[in-house]
Please model this.
Amino acid sequence: MKRLLFFTLLLIVTPLIAAQTESNKQMIKFIDSLMGRMTLEEKIGQLNLGGVGNPKVVGSAIGLDEAIKNGYVSAVGGFDINAAVDAQRFAVENSRLGIPLIIGLDVIHGYHTIFPIPLASSCSWNIPLIEKSARIAAQEAAAYGINWTFSPMVDICRDSRWGRIAEGSGEDPYLGSLIGQAMIRGYQGENLSDSTTIMACVKHFALYGASEAGRDYNTVSMDPVTMYNYYLPPYKAAFDEGAGSGMTSFNVVNGVPATGNKWLLTDLLRKEWHYEGFMVSDASSVAEMADHGMGDVQEIAELAINAGLDMDMSSSLFVLCLKEAVKNKKVTEAQINESCKRVLIAKYKLGLFQDPYRYVNNEELKTKVLSDNNCDVARQLAAESIVLLKNSDNYLPLNTNQKIAVVGPLGNVKGSLLGTWSYGFSENRMNTIYEALQEILAGKGEATYSKGANFTEDYCIYDGQYTLPTESLIKQALIDVKDADIIIATVGEPSSWSGEARSRVNPALPECQKEMLRELKKLDKPIVLAILSGRPLILTDEDRDFSTIVMAWHGGTMAAEALSDVLFGVTNPSGKTTTTFPRHLGQIPIYYNSLNTGRPYSDFWATTKYIDCSNEPLYPFGYGLSYNNYIYDKPILNKYIAYGDNDSIKISIDITNSGVYLGQEIVQLYIGDPVASISRPIKELKAFKKIELLPGETKTVDFHLKVDLFKYYNECLKYDWDEGGFDIFIGPNSKDVQTSKIIWKKHDKI
Ligand code: BGC
Model:
């Protein structure tokens, strides 16, 4: 039977492989013939990304049209998509060889339909839904001529001061890898040349999320074991998934800027990981190597290309310096050819040589942008991203027969709910939180709105208008909420406080918003805190003073509806944190998969405990409540000893929904490796399942453990595992787990 299956499979697969090999041969033949007709300048031009309207690009210096005409521009990464589309036509019609451009943009959480920021989406732990959101993002972007997105960002981050934490999937390499891969599948689909798919760009290679003190672009310094075990895996997973391109990071890696780092771009990426796509620099990061102290413009351009960088984004230094470098034998023509070939292969795979306008004439696709279906997916993802942090008075879910007072700077705004990098959004399709609540309460309850506080300073200009000082806003709010049954305090950060160059020294609620909360609390009315932000905030005061806290992040186009769905129990919250929430600024960086110390015990005077604060986070990784309680039974192992590489152990656990609502629960499995050749984290996430349970329903969740789960990079950076005992932790978050012990031996059972 097995043989029959094997031969049947062989019969199916062989012609497929043959067809693929044939089309690969055709591609290479086409590209070789094209390159045979290209001058050295034209080949170098293929290594240049000029931003539309970017003052640093060669295109602007001599005029973009002229640069394109001369074959100096390979790709445009502009914010003005109409200009980019015109540039495409110009390139095809006016450059000597008519080589089409790649048109890129940061479509990182949707294009017209904006999905929650990636950090929020990661809290859904819903991999298929995230993939679907990326699929929609690709379709909408492709409809407007974009064929390349600078996403996913898979930088692991343990520091909520860093504004770009919003753009990634949090602190865990396993979850981060799955999400990065799902986004790539979503963007690129089965066939990159389909006019509804776009090329992904994995960024920022590498370690960008570990910038010191959370300050953007700052130094990174990291030991190799940490790098290999925690920070590199999501990049590798994303490259392995077949992402068409990758982007370097601004920071140094082992002291050398990533953009000119040969070890990173050649030894690791090409030789160890066998990645074949092309690598683009981050914006101006080639030029910025001068400030890193790597030499003059000629030297840094040479450094970058010799390190293995294929395309220069908006420094223009490849175009300006590489011809000279070849002449002076600092760079070989072979090196230029290799990079040029990678870029042309990407263009070929995108189908641009067959039809350079395939992403430009998508009139039919345009009609589907911001469709009801797309908004429904955005609403579901936004609702599943919301994390219920606290509900100890059971104020939630709300009922619709109440008078609800919405108070706070985020309660009646739109753009501030979207999150960073939201380009094609349309506020017309959005509601404010106040409007969404009015809609659900219509004919039953009532909603009022008062601003209550500015985002920050007392007097400020916001959205072009002067706002009143906080004191007056609070005074008014206290009057407005007098008749309310319940207050929903919408506090946090506007979209512009997270993302690139948006580090905060104290990622907490600003004092004026805290002041508003203190005054509202004095009224002794039920209060629900709805926190909207692009990063995990330090919520220690709020956790102490309030019984009900909902973390709603920046949820995109449907942020308001999604929040309303959760508040009224239309969607039972199921999101779980993907970053550890600190209780104090001084704890940062704080993360769950840390090592033990030699003095972990609290009864010993010289522990690693702070003398003025607990070591514990406010909310651990993987944490989030529901309107139900889920009861975790005892985990059951089918055996507790396994042997060799091919064995497996099944661990099962019954989960019961003891509540009255339909709900989803994310069941998490962590491992611990208490004795190993290097010190290993106390816990590491290795598997999870998101299950749906009816009221009263019990489901058995099975996990199949394989030896691969126990592998790690050891001191010699060999990926291996140690035989012996392992801890298997299962629970609703990284803290509240039940522990089972197993043994795994290297040799086969005798
Ligand atoms: C950012 C990248 C982004 C690029 C292009 C840079 O400043 O670091 O993440 O893709 O700009 O917009």
Summary: The longest helix spans residues 2-36. The pocket of beta-D-glucopyranose is lined by residues 77, 106, 150, 203, 282-283, 500 (CB under 6 Å). Residues 630-745 form a domain with the Immunoglobulin-like fold (CATH 2.60.40.10).
